[in-house]
């Protein structure tokens, strides 16, 4: 039953995406002193979700209004100044990216938890 609910599938995908972001941030921080290392990043969840398709709003009745897509919030690009050894890692930028990934993960878990609460309430438990 749970696999048929898009809310749980989306929350799970968001948590996995946040995990990928924090892993990439950790790799960037670990290579902060590696000569020639270039910062790598994971696309935002919104971009990944849109690339996967199925982002159109569902219209369950003909009288419902068609939704308009919200403007995409661009991910803040890291314009790190390159160090003399060719490394482009900025520890400050990576710290902000880690906090943002942690916030995304917490949001995914909150959505999942509220979905479970709603499901339990609807079946009387």
Automatic annotation (TrEMBL):
Cellular component, GO annotation: bacterial-type flagellum basal body
Subcellular location(s) of the protein: Bacterial flagellum basal body
Highest taxon of source: Bacteria
Chief place where the protein resides: other
Domain Flagellar basal body rod protein N-terminal: 18-38
Sorted UniProt keywords: Cell projection, Cilium, Flagellum
Protein's name in the database: Flagellar basal-body rod protein FlgB
Keyword set includes Thylakoid: no
InterPro entries: Flag_bb_rod_N
Keyword Manganese: no
Gene (name only): flgB
């Amino acid at each position: 039953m749970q696999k048929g609910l898009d809310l749980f599938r989306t929350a799970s995908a968001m948590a996995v995406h946040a995990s990928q972001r924090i892993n990439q941030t950790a790799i960037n921080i670990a290579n902060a002193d590696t000569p020639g290392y270039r910062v790598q990043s994971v696309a935002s969840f919104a971009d990944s979700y849109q690339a996967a398709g199925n982002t159109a709003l569902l219209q369950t009745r003909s009288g419902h209004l068609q939704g308009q897509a919200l403007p995409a919030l661009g991910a803040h690009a890291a314009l790190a100044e390159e160090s003399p050894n060719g490394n482009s890692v900025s520890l400050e930028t990576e710290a902000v990216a880690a906090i943002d990934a942690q916030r995304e993960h917490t949001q995914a878990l909150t959505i999942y938890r509220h979905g479970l609460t709603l499901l339990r309430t609807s079946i009387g438990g």
